[in-house]
Amino acid sequence: SQTSLQLPSPYRLVELESIDSTNAEAKRLAEQGAPDCTVVWAKRQTAGRGRRGRTWVSEDGNLYFSILLRMPYPMEVMSQLSFVAANAVADAVQVAATRGAFVNVKWPNDVLLEGQKVAGILLEGEPDLKTGAFKWLVLGIGVNIASHPALEEGAYPPTSLAAQGVEGEGLDVTLMLDTLTKRFLAGLATWRNLGFGPIRRHWLARAKGLGGPVTVRLPNEQVQGVFGALDEKGALVLHLDGQPNRLITAGDVFIPSI
Ligand code: BTN
Asked: What is the CATH number of the domain that holds 22?
């Protein structure tokens, strides 16, 4: 159930019953001059969006929210923020799930619970070509708590906290939002003070398939290689047989389960 929540400063919370997409709403608010760290939280979405033009099934009982970020970040650091977010989501899922639960991150910013996708992140921005920074960024996060969509052809297998046997407080949507936004604020401070290094290390410590074979699906091709590293811009470094490394900056990564 959704109870009223006090988020720490500088967050400002906008709570909604239903909206097309919290990312779309945060963008509309951005255009109307809403301040940095405005959080748009909805019980359900009627047109939830996923990465690469996909839809995000958004029934009651899961967490759907977006954070408006207005700091004048240089554009090349945009992707770094999605790793700050993925770490916060993974931490929050670990807190909500049982202690022994197996939480992973999958490039670029999916969070896996017991090897299946439990959360997704969609980062969108409005570039300002004059300054080379973003006018604003919208960081959208969806966490499957009570339910998850059916397995779809070509998609990564989904799960939810409930489907993994989590009970009680672990299924509290409000608590998840509270934990997650606090972790994100802490990650943001680390990133600002110390740069991407500690964020990348934290992410890599939980990265699924590091050092092993992965398949990357791109719009027009499929590439197989070894997941070697994450570079300083957040690109996946793919080692290929007898060829130079390839930097992957978009696409879907599939990791064979052992
Ligand atoms: C993905 O893995 O494809 C990203 C999914 C992002 C879903 C969240 S739910 C809240 C926010 N509003 C949206 O329309 N999408 C994001």
From this structure: 3.30.930.10
Query: Cis omega before residue 213 (within 30°)?
Result: no
Q: Residue 81: name the closest of 60, 109, 118 by CA.
A: 109
> ipTM of this model?
0.99
Does the global pTM surpass 0.90? Answer: yes
Q: Rounded to the nearest whole angstrom, what is the distance from the C-alpha of residue 48 to the centroid of ligand 1?
A: 6
* Distance in Å, CA 22 to ligand 1 centroid: 8
Phi, psi of 248 (to 5 degrees): -100, 120
Q: How many domains, the chain? A: 2
If asked whether residues 50 and 166 sit together in one domain, one would say yes
156 touches ligand 1 (CB under 6 Å): no
For ligand 1, say whether the CB of 140 is within 6 Å of any of its atoms. Answer: yes
Q: What is the pLDDT of residues 207-243, one digit of tens each?
A: 999 999 999 988 888 999 999 999 988 999 999 999 9
22, 133: one domain: yes
d(CA 149, CA 256) in angstroms, rounded, equals: 21
Query: Do residue 116 and residue 243 come from a single domain?
Result: no
Any domain includes 5: no
